[in-house]
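Re: the 396-residue chain
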Amino acid sequence: MIHKSTTENQKKHFHDSNDDNGYIQLLNSGEAYFLQLKKLIEDAQKEIHLQTYIFEDDETGNDIADCLKRAAQRKVKVYVLLDAYGSAALPDSFVQDLIHHGISIRFFSPLFSLNNFYLGRRMHHKVLVVDEKMAVIGGINIANKYKGIQELEPWLDFAVQLDCPAAEDLQKLCRDYFFKKGSSKKIKPVLHSAGNALVGIIQNDWLKSKTEVCDAYTNAILRAKKEIIIIGSYFLPGKKMSKALKKASKRGVKITLILAGISDVPLVRRATEHLYATFLHDHIKIYEWNKSVLHGKAAIVDNQWSTIGSFNLNSLSCYGSIEMNVEIHSFGFAETLRLDFNRVINECKEVTKSSFEIRANILNRLADWLSYQIIRTTLLSLTFLPHLRVFKKYRF
């Protein structure tokens, strides 16, 4: 049976007091997410920015594209920024149709380049901003697999809807990336009020000395006193993050990891499994999600600090990709996210020391170790080695 969040269920999510400071709302992947996205686009009056890593030419992609085209026909300025690698499969006819309908579209190729070569830098945002007032930020791309079709569960992922001054910050950042102003590196993260919560937009772009997401994760873990819950796809933390988790565990902090039992990149899942023995030795609880591909990137620390966005805990997100997260300081939102995490955990399979020892025979351990070495080397290569650029007139 397909898990599709209904609009009614969405309303049960945290919705902080709706006063002059606005509100924030937790969203899940599934049909209701895309209905909400369409509603925001349909209500737009002046300007829309959509920036995403993957935009696919499928039922979901065409549905959102049609909605954007109707907005452009209403004289709303529509700007779409896609990643040249993540959305490489998007047909030229699809792109030209958007342009024909008055939509401004560009594909991100890295700015650090020399002739036909560039460092492997990707635009990994998943952001929608409408009229500087409303925004959605998270880890959900535009594709059927995030919506759920037929008998397939949607990929597990999260996002946050913002109706607060942080949406204005997001629009400034989106305009900066689309128009290549280069001022985003000068924009410092600011916490804005949203009801009883404090909300800020944080970035990671190592080549521009922006390490806000990585630093926020590390600092939150180092300061943790009671509990850390992380849901992570492609989970391969570096030495600094791993040490921070280990130190937190030694301080008596309860740590829970919700990881992928099914992955769209099986080699990464095996590489992550190579770390299980260390995690379990450090008394870190591990749960695997097996109902669909786990694609979420979110965390809660001490039921007060939360983050959701595009940032994966691995070296590619730390040093290669351009990432964007929202950080939220709020007991109410953290409690809502925690309830959602508990729902996920209840549908997961726990990996214990005994269950791991049963499945971790010599061949599996060797395969996990090889996968880890291959993936670590590949991530470093993707981050630092040059690749051939694909030129198109509407690409950077």
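Residues 362-384 form the longest helix (23 residues).
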